[in-house]
Design a protein that fits this description.
The complex is a heterodimer of chains A (about 350) and B (about 400). With about 350 residues, chain A is an all-alpha fold. Chain A contains 14 helices and four strands. In chain A, strand 3 and strand 4 form a beta hairpin. In chain A, helix 6 runs antiparallel to helix 7, helix 10 packs across helix 11 and helix 13 packs antiparallel against helix 14. Chain B is built from 20 helices and no strands. Helix content of chain B is about 80%, strand content about 0%. Among the domains of chain B are: about 90 residues, no CATH class; about 100 residues, no CATH class. The chains are: A mainly alpha (about 350), B mainly alpha (about 400). Chain B: One of its GO terms (biological process) is cilium movement.
Chain lengths: ~350, ~400
């Protein structure tokens, strides 16, 4: 008996009593007794259609067939199976991160849970390798307002890291970022500033001052200062975020221009595109701030709208790119120093003469 | 024992509950001091100060790595607490001043940092802060920025980076002409003018063609005249005179040399006068007048000696020695060479010292030869007697000498 659902994958009903005692199937998401089974892999079960759809969108579409050997082979701790599990961990981590970059906290949960489960399976409970999964889950839960659960997850992650002094700066940076987010969400701005300050420090150490990771850390900190009504600091930090993103996008644009004759070279990973989505959200927020700001910094407005134009171009939205590009040109022509005008005019010319990039 | 047991039982709990340290306080104790400093800056929203401090620490580490095999390892910047504290304090003040729109104060903090790093191993930090002060976008016309600009112009001139020195001097003078500078900065203008004059003279010396050199020297003269620096104007005239001399325009050259002398006398510039006489010696040399050459060189040497210009004195003395030697006046050549040797020893001029030694040697040898040759050529009884005695001594010497191995 199968349910037709081409968009969300296909399922079929199962009869719980048909399974031997001790081998009852539980829902992939909520662990309650399962009534549905994925018709493709047949090793994933759900309590009802909504959970199946959530899991499909969240992660299952990408890993459906990969689960078969992992969940059917016995024993399932052979080297080959372990490698397959590590592949699943990698995919689920990337998917969860991508969802979070796009602000899709609910959709990130299935991937984050899967990551946590398989990491524990491969490396054991409370291992340092499980920390990224804790952090992903914490971030998703903060976004959904489940602050108590997020606090618990972060405490676990912190405890593991304290027990493992030789861990990477990247993990410390992410832990601080999530603690910062948690404190900001609870209104504890002082602790939020402390954690975001550590986030920026470790991001700079690990990734450098001109990295988009550091830019995100600065953006989050700027947000806290905005809540404290310290607008000059917010403005200064936003300026730095915009500069980093503009430099990053300029490099991507150069690569794009070089590969126009070879469209095949232009294809990018889902993860890269999602990261850009995060950049777009940040730049959008900065633009909104600048447009409302009393100082009306046209240089910054030009820079941010230009960056948004490049982002839209790279995502294949020429129409929106042209819109942003024109706004950038208008702003840049009103300022004395016209360093950016040439770059903006170059971009507009590119938009007018070249077709849209290929979509994946 | 019983008393202590009782006191233990009856001991009261403290009036106030003990306060647990916050997470921040614990981190402050356990984390690296540099990390604490950076985090404190960031918590206050001073991200630009943090970025600058971080870059400097990274640069210091890179420099230390590069120098590891060549020089004795100096302590890293991050290990020098007092320097870090000063950096932190001034960078924070600079950023806060900038944020408040007070660009002059911001530049002032940077200038103070530049002046703080005065030791030779911190030259790179000094230059960093002078640059960041002088090249500040918003505060470029402020007094501290101009002060930094003056230092950099003079520094580049000293280190022979003449083009850079000229650029900075010209930029500052242009700002002054456009009325962009305040009263406090105008006292620095003579320094820029001097740098520009000097830079133009050096560029003229290195120029490939005469026209470029002439243009540069004319500009030098104009600049020197503007700031009423007689000494500098004298030097510019001297350089121009040399240029005309190289083109065989002797009349124009002589006019400029005379003008230079007037300027040097007016400015009581002993160094300038000494250089003038050296130039005049060259001028006389071009006319083939050796006596005049000697006269001018002697004058130059005298001035160098009285004004304690050891290096110039050694140089002039050597030239004079060579002239005397060429003229066959070996006694005088030897005397001057000895003088040159003495001065070179005092001034630690090793190459010149060795040269002087050689000149003393060959002048002395020439004197001896002269003596013997002049004795042998005479036909007087005394000369004959000397010649006979010499030959006899020579013969005995040959008989008594050990057979060669």
């Amino acid at each position: 008996m199968g349910d037709k659902s081409s968009v969300w994958g296909q399922t079929c009903r199962i009869i719980p009593l048909a399974f031997p005692k001790g081998q009852e199937k539980v829902c992939e998401l909520c662990q309650s007794p399962a009534r549905l089974q994925c018709a493709t892999c047949r090793v994933t079960f759900y309590c009802h259609a909504e959970h199946q759809r959530t899991d499909w969108v969240g992660i299952h579409e990408r890993i459906c067939k990969l689960l078969v050997p992992v969940r059917t082979c016995m024993p399932n701790n052979t080297k080959e199976i372990q490698l397959k599990k590590m592949e699943l961990i990698k995919i689920s981590t990337l998917v969860a991160q991508s969802k979070l970059f796009q602000g899709k906290h609910q959709e990130a949960l299935p991937a984050a849970h899967l990551c946590s489960r398989y990491t524990e399976d491969v490396h054991g409970p409370q291992s340092v390798q499980q920390v990224p999964a804790f952090l992903l889950l914490a971030e998703a839960n903060i976004g959904l307002g489940n602050l108590a659960l997020a606090a618990e997850l972060l405490s676990q992650a912190e405890w593991v890291l304290l027990k493992t002094p030789e861990h990477s700066n990247s993990l410390t940076q992410q832990l601080n970022r999530n603690f910062g987010r948690l404190h900001a969400a609870t209104g504890n701005l002082e602790d939020a500033r402390f954690n975001f300050a550590n986030d920026i420090f470790f991001a700079t150490v690990e990734f450098g001052m001109n990295s988009t990771v550091t830019a995100c850390s600065l953006f989050l900190m700027a947000d806290v200062f905005a809540k404290m009504k310290k607008m000059s600091i917010t403005r200064s930090m936003y300026q730095e975020v915009a500069r980093i993103w503009c430099d990053h996008l300029t490099k991507l644009l150069e690569i794009y221009k070089k590969n126009i004759p070879n469209p095949a070279m232009l294809s990018e990973s889902f993860h890269d595109k999602s990261k850009r989505a995060e950049g777009e959200r940040m730049l959008g927020a900065i633009l909104e701030f600048l447009q409302k700001d009393v100082s009306k910094d046209l240089t910054q407005i030009a820079l941010v709208t230009y960056s948004l134009a490049v982002l839209r171009l790279l995502d294949g939205d020429s129409h929106k790119a042209l819109e942003f590009g024109s706004a950038a040109l208008q702003a840049s022509q009103q300022i004395l120093k016209r360093d950016l005008t040439d770059a903006i005019q170059g971009l507009l010319q590119l938009l007018q003469t070249n077709p849209e990039p290929p979509s994946d | 024992m019983k008393r202590s047991q009782n006191s233990f039982r009856t001991r009261r709990a403290p009036e106030e509950p003990t306060r647990l340290p916050t997470k921040q306080e614990v981190t402050a104790l356990t984390a690296d001091p540099v990390q604490n400093m950076c985090v404190e800056m960031l918590q206050r929203g001073l991200h630009r100060s943090f970025s600058e401090l971080f870059s400097l620490l990274q640069a210091a580490r890179t420099r230390r790595k590069a120098a590891a095999f060549t020089t004795a390892a100096a302590p890293l910047l991050e290990e020098q607490r007092d320097k870090l504290e000063t950096l932190k304090l001034r960078l924070i003040r600079a950023e806060e001043a900038g944020r408040a729109g007070s660009w002059s104060d911001s530049c002032q903090q940077r200038l103070l940092l530049a002046q703080y790093f005065s030791s030779p191993e911190d030259l790179w930090l000094r230059l960093h802060f002078y640059h960041s002060c002088a090249d500040s976008e918003q505060g470029a016309a402020s007094a501290p920025a101009m002060e930094a600009q003056a230092f950099l112009a003079e520094f580049y001139l000293q280190t022979d980076d003449v083009e850079k020195a000229k650029q900075r001097a010209e930029l500052s003078l242009k700002r002054e002409d456009e009325g962009m500078l305040g009263l406090n900065s105008q006292t620095l203008m003579p320094r820029f003018s001097r740098v520009l004059t000097e830079a133009n003279m050096r560029l003229a010396e290195a120029a490939d063609d005469h026209d470029t050199a002439l243009k540069l020297l004319q500009e030098s003269c104009r600049t020197a005249r503007k700031i009423k620096d007689e000494s500098l104007e004298g030097r510019a005239n001297l350089h121009m005179g040399r240029l005309y001399l190289s083109k065989d325009e002797h009349d124009s050259a002589k006019q400029l040399f005379d003008s230079a002398k007037e300027h040097f006398l007016s400015a009581q510039d002993a160094g300038g006068l000494a250089e003038f006489y050296r130039t005049m010696a060259k001028f006389s040399e071009s006319k083939g007048n050796t006596d005049e050459v000697i006269e001018f060189l002697e004058k130059s040497a005298e001035i160098c000696e009285s004004s304690h210009q050891h290096s110039e004195l050694a140089d002039v003395s050597m030239t004079l020695c060579e002239v005397y030697y060429r003229k066959g006046r070996y006694d005088r050549a030897r005397e001057v060479a000895l003088k040159c040797f003495e001065v070179s020893c005092k001034a630690g001029l090793t190459a010149m010292l060795l040269k002087a030694q050689t000149m003393v040697g060959i002048s002395s040898a020439q004197l001896l030869i002269e003596k013997h040759v002049s004795g042998g050529m005479s036909s007087s009884p005394a000369a004959l007697d000397r010649l006979l005695k010499r030959e006899k001594t020579k013969a005995c010497g040959e008989l008594n000498s050990e057979p060669a191995e």
